[in-house]
Each structure stands twice: as C-alpha cells, then as structure tokens.
Amino acid sequence: MTIAFQVPDMTCGHCVRAITQAVAEAAPGAHVTVDLESHRVTVSGADQADKVEAAIRAAGYAPARA
Ligand SMILES: [Cu+2]
Description:
Blueprint: E1 2-6, H1 13-26, E2 31-35, E3 40-44, H2 49-58, E4 64-65
Antiparallel strand pairs: 1-3, 1-4, 2-3
Helix pairs in contact: 1-2
Copper (II) ion (CU) is lined by residues 11-12, 14-15.
C-alpha cells in the first residue's frame, strides 16, 4: 500500500530526517519518499497507515492524509 501525507510544517532538512526516521521505525521495510518543496511524504510498503500517521504526529508534525 502506498500512503501519502501532506505535512505543512515540514520545512527543512532536519524535519525531513526526523520524519523519515519516525516512519522507518513505525513501518520497518517501507520506502519513504519526501518532497520538501511540496511538503509531501509518500510511504510505500507500509501496511498500517494509521501507525505511520501517528508516528509522524509523535515526531511533532501535523500530517494530513493526501
Ligand atoms: Cu525542519
């Protein structure tokens, strides 16, 4: 399953790393693609979208399913 999120408060390379790491921990083996310009996080190979979303939220960001 591929899940996409808009994360408006992801604004720099630090955010990208923090979110990428949070997603990797929530969904081991998933592939994370981040486009900072469009504030878009795409996760492929995750089986629980809610868990990924919660992990991004726990990292301090406000994801919205896109
Ligand atoms: Cu940042």
